[in-house]
Amino acid sequence: MYPDLQGKTVVITGAGTGLGQAMALRFGQEKANVVINYFKEEENPDDTIKEIERSGGKAIKIQGDVSKEEDIKQMIQKAVSEFGSLDIMVNNAGIENEVPSDELTLEDWNRVISTNLTGMFLGCREAIDYMLDHGIKGSVINMSSVHQQIPWPHFVHYAASKGGAKLLTETLALEYAPKGIRVNAIGPGAIDTPINAEKFADEKLKEGVVELIPMGYIGKPEEVAACAVWLSSSEASYVTGLTLYVDGGMTKYPGFQAGKG
Predict the structure, then answer these.
(1) Is-above-0.90 flag for pTM?
(2) Is pLDDT at 123 greater than 80 in this prediction?
């Protein structure tokens, strides 16, 4: 637990399900004020809000599309109007779809880039602007992926968005370090979330993924959430510009495990 997070206000995009929901619940356990952004009506986070409140935190929800500038602005405004400040911004919203690169439409390319990278930029910009105006030495966390490092055929738009997320994070970290604003990224590997449910329901496909993980198991959303609260806390006060891989070793060339190669 991180006592300094109690009463801090965090905005988490794409928090209706999956990693975003897990982070919202964990920040609630830290007794933070959580603003839950969600996109689809079926992701309505009312149950998540109740769980956060049972944990001693506070939470509100706001529906919105992170690729739209006005929606991001409204998230920040709602956080401030409800809780009086913004201390932590988690740009988590992201989408993907599989398609051979030679068949990828411009529409699909733009859809993924707009959500994953443009939405991340807008969240960073609006949060940092607020923190600068109010003298807040805050924390920004961008949800990247192991695929900012590992190429991923049939997902070129997703991989490109995460490669962009890496240098977006590092550039902003360098730019705003003198102001005490920390900007970091988390790079999850294979995590048991709804976006991966269909793949992991197929035991053969799941076994193929596990073979790529030196630790030998699919990660849990709670393991990613634990890293998010640490990066937001004073325990990580000297950490900026980092991508923290939460991947069971997936980025460490598993084919060479046990002396192979």
Answers:
(1) yes
(2) yes
List C-alpha distances in Å: 10 to 13, 37, 102, 218. 10, 11, 40, 27
Structure tokens belonging to residue 242: 């980092």
What pLDDT score does 195 carry? 82
Amino acid letter, 159: A
Q: Which of 158, 176, 217, 245 is catalytic?
A: 158
**Gap between the Cα atoms of 166 and 143, Å rounded:** 10
If you count them, how many residues does the chain have?
261
**How sure is the predictor about 260, in pLDDT bands with cuts at 50, 70 and 90?**
confident
How many CA atoms are closer than 13 Å to the CA of 27, on its beta-carbon side?
Answer: 33
CA distance 168 to 241: 9
Known active-site residue 253: no
Cβ atoms of 173 and 184 within 8 Å: the answer is yes
Cα–Cα distances (Å) from 211 to 6, 23, 187, in that order, read 40, 27, 19
All domains of the chain in start order, with CATH:
3-247 (3.40.50.720)
